[in-house]
Amino acid sequence: MIRGQEFHSIIQNIFIDVNGIYESEQLQVNCPRCQERDGLSHPDGKFNLEINTKKRLYRCWKCEEPKFSGSLGKLIRLYGTNVDYELYKSFAGVFHDYNNYDDIEQEYESVKLPDEMILFSQMDENDSDHFEAYNYLVNERKINKETILKYRLGFCLTGKYGRRIIIPSYDSNGDINYFVARSYDKILKKKKPYDNPKSNKDAIIFNEGMINWDSTIYIVEGVFEMLSLPSNAIPLLGKTISITLINKLKELKPNVIVILDLDAEKDSINLIHLLKTIYYDCEEKIKIVILPKGLYDENGKPIKDLDELRKNKGNDGVIKSLRTARDLITDDYFLNKLQKPYEYRPRRHYSNTGSNSQQY
Fold first, then answer.
1. Regarding the domain delimited by 212-341, which CATH topology (the fold level of the hierarchy) does it fall under?
2. pTM of the entire predicted model
3. Beta strands of 6-114 (E only): which ranges?
4. What would the mean pLDDT of 82-86 be, rounded to a whole number?
């Protein structure tokens, strides 16, 4: 039995090229510190950084002054994402050691819906200002009335979020935990299309209260992609998954289909690799949809996301794409290799003095 094998997929997510993966407790990867010191744009291919997953320690045999060594958790925190580190903690049964980290606390505001918000279910159809907001959703975004009512969409005419559509998110208790404010004003749309609350998106699952975890979960990029699917769609509000969502998926292991925008194909593949880390015993539950290329809207512009696909090709176009859900293929692996395999993330500041590393 390979001790520490649960960490192998996390290490592979970060470094991609790993000698000994799933075969040994002693792994070798290209050292990112060597790459930084030598000013290289790509790994040096020497595999000088050794990782012992049994002892949860690492050391580069080339980096001596200063020595580059320490705990596996430190290495993952330095070069992985927040999600990589949260997965490491969940497998290792460890928690943040604030004696080793120099945290910068982020202040977040509690979320409540704008006082000026008017639900579309309560709009005055004879008010031209109300109708302008409604017209944007129905005629420009082609969102049907059933979807507008289902997701309790609203709008603001005045205040901080004036002339914006409000797409709210409710938690499993039915309480508001976030919202997206999208402008429908011609000038604002170009200047600042979105204006969302300063809240911790990593701590929520958007519209979790509407998710059936016993059914297939669709992971999409934005809220309008969420509105383009009949149900069970969770928007990332970007291209990276939140720690809260990854932990929920790890706990419940539902079927998942990832559908990000066309310009996020690499991000989609990375996300699939990440999900396979927690679905190591049931990888067949994870699928990817790559949106079709070569489709254009009525103005001749390329269709690049699920929202545009629905607007121009209708629900049938969306369903046709969903039917292409598949596992990763060889071409996906090579596409993933084209990007830089790791990136230094100076969120924490470490000291090499007093390291608990040892030779092994």
1. Dna Topoisomerase Vi A Subunit; Chain: A, domain 2 (3.40.1360)
2. 0.73
3. 26-29, 49-52, 57-64, 67-71
4. 81
